[in-house]
Amino acid sequence: MKEPKIRKIVTNLEEVFYEGGADMPIENGGKKSIKTVSVAAVIKNPYAGKWQEDLSELTEYGEYLGDLLARKGAELLGADAVETYGKGCLVGTDGELEHSSAMLHPKAGKPIRAAIGGGKSIIPSNEKVAGVGASLDISLHYKDAAFVRTHYGSFEVRVPDAPKADEIIMAVVLSDGGRPHATVNGVGRIGGLQKSEAKCEDGMH
């Protein structure tokens, strides 16, 4: 597996204790907060400024970073605690959108799942080409059943001095819960499939 040239890794850990006028309920798995972590790597884009038909080098980078970033995030949350996940890329302006897709889609998912001990649903992905300081809202959902409505969400990733024109940011986002106050007394406030009802067999329901 080919390793990318990493300029920096940026980690952001958010812990929500209070939202919408109320403390986080103890019913949320016995937790008093919801933690979400993003781990982003800023790497050199080997194809910046030139046409390259074969993007397999970036696919290898995605596999390597899927493992590295997810393991770092899981260390902060605890692999067994992870309920929600997502991934994304920001490509600098000398690159192209397909560079992001090469990193995210073919091989990144398997090591992310391995780092958190499983995950049956597809890992949501977001990507765009942008300049320095751009942000990316990475979509999230429940790792074992994508239709669990309480866990739909997003988390912003931004590195102030990246991506430079010849760089790519790849990020993995993990959370130990769904949205703050998505349930009251175990019942979803907007209905839909609940985590407790999910069969977690097909990655959807």
From TrEMBL:
<dbReference type="InterPro" id="IPR009569">
    <property type="entry name" value="AA_synth_put"/>
</dbReference>
<protein>
    <recommendedName>
        <fullName>Amino acid synthesis family protein</fullName>
    </recommendedName>
</protein>
<dbReference type="Pfam" id="PF06684">
    <property type="entry name" value="AA_synth"/>
</dbReference>
<dbReference type="InterPro" id="IPR035936">
    <property type="entry name" value="BB2672"/>
</dbReference>
